[in-house]
Structures are given as C-alpha cells and as structure tokens.
C-alpha cells in the first residue's frame, strides 16, 4: 500500500474501501513508509527482511514471520534496516469483518497492539496470505469473498495463539464484566472519535446508569476520564513521534478546542504540548499551531 510522504497521512475508508470491505496488497519496501494512520484495520505479515515498525511512538522490531494487526486508533511508520528490503503482505479491512470473539481475545483488557513473531504459530500465515491474494484477484469468482473472510479468521486465530504463547501465565478470562470488556474494546479503537456515555453503553448492552457505575467500579475512573486519558496519551505520543502542529494534534486526538486541550494536557503531564514537542526528537520547526 503506497503511502504519500507527509506528516502524517490519514488513509480513509472512502479512499481505500469505498466499494469493498477489504483490499489486499503485496509490496516491497526499501525505504521508510512514513507516519500515517487509517480508518480501517490493517493485518500485515513480513515475508522477508528486517526492520522496525514504530506504533504509537514505540519501536517494535519486525522480521520474517512477524504478524501484526493495527486498529483505527493507531498511528505508525515502517522502515527496513539499512541495506535491507522488506517484502510484505498487507490486508486492510473494515471493522465489520473482525469476529467479536477474536477481537476480544486479541485486545483483552487494555491491550492495544496485537503482534506475534512466533514461528510455530505463524509459519502457515504466508500460505494463507498467498491464498488470500489469489481470491482477492478473482473477487468475482463464486465464493471468493467467503474464502477471504475465512482466511482472515484463520490468520487472526494464529495471531491469538501467538499472543497466548507469549503470555502463558495469563488467565483466559477477562477480569472485567463482559459489558465493560465490550465497552473497553470499542473505546480503545474509537477514542479519537466523538464518544458519549450513552453510545458506549449501547455497545456494552447495559443501561447508561448501570454501565457508568460498573465502568467506574471496575476501571477505577469515570468513563469520561478514561476516554480523556487515552486521548492525552495518544496526543503525547504523536507530539513525540511527528512534527505535526499542536493544533492538528489537538483535533486528531479527539479534542474540540485547543484551549481545553492545552489546559488538561498541562494538568496531566506537568508541561504544555509545545514544551513536550520541543523536548522530543521530532519537535521543532513545523509547529505553527
């Protein structure tokens, strides 16, 4: 998937998935794929080469067999190591295609990133991606869409298994009420969008009053504070990872006014967004907001 150079690009459903629920890419990357985010899920498999996937400001090493899934709440960039080329399978898809049970297993609790490089769990992933590529190329063929969806489920199951191998001591059951767990998943993937307690309560399948009480008891903070903290952490990561102007960081992080954003940012982190920007490696010249 070719990404235009900029700070950063936003890849929209309208541009990539307006007429289809998914799209497949096979690509070679010998230079930086610059910082971007997208309105859809992105499942990626590294066929060959070594590099770094910087997700929400955190560097994650990638190499042959690495399989990872990013959500609409993430921003990232990928770069190969010096003198290397990354060969990548990339599958993007709308949220409606991800099975709720698999999503819960992949993003249990407050986990944000699903990634695995366990060869025992991902050695079949390349074959699944090759089959997916064939079916996507013949989308008009009977049953092609159904096969692609089944292959997506299979790849996500491999990712779940890899996650379980990396966390063998973790219990399979979420510590949260099922309704709160559903709400947390929804919030984690949509916190940059307008979110009301009533909307999220519907996702949790609980009444608004009961959801509010249950959420506060189990997370330790009120719903609105939880959403605000996610937005502030996202904003701080974006300030450190990119030269995006503070004004734009404010809005893309989910805040409506710059004054309010600057006030609560300083209250939480003890310094203004501009001071955070100046202290970061990406800080400096482009901050006109």
TrEMBL record:
Gene3D superfamilies: Homeodomain-like (1.10.10.60), Jelly Rolls (2.60.120.10). Keywords: DNA-binding, Transcription, Transcription regulation. SUPFAM superfamilies: Homeodomain-like (SSF46689), Regulatory protein AraC (SSF51215). SMART domains: HTH_ARAC (SM00342). The keyword DNA-binding applies. The keyword Translocase does not apply. PROSITE patterns: HTH_ARAC_FAMILY_1 (PS00041), HTH_ARAC_FAMILY_2 (PS01124). It comes from the Bacteria. GO terms for molecular function: DNA-binding transcription factor activity; sequence-specific DNA binding. Residues 181-279 form the HTH araC/xylS-type domain. This is AraC family transcriptional regulator.
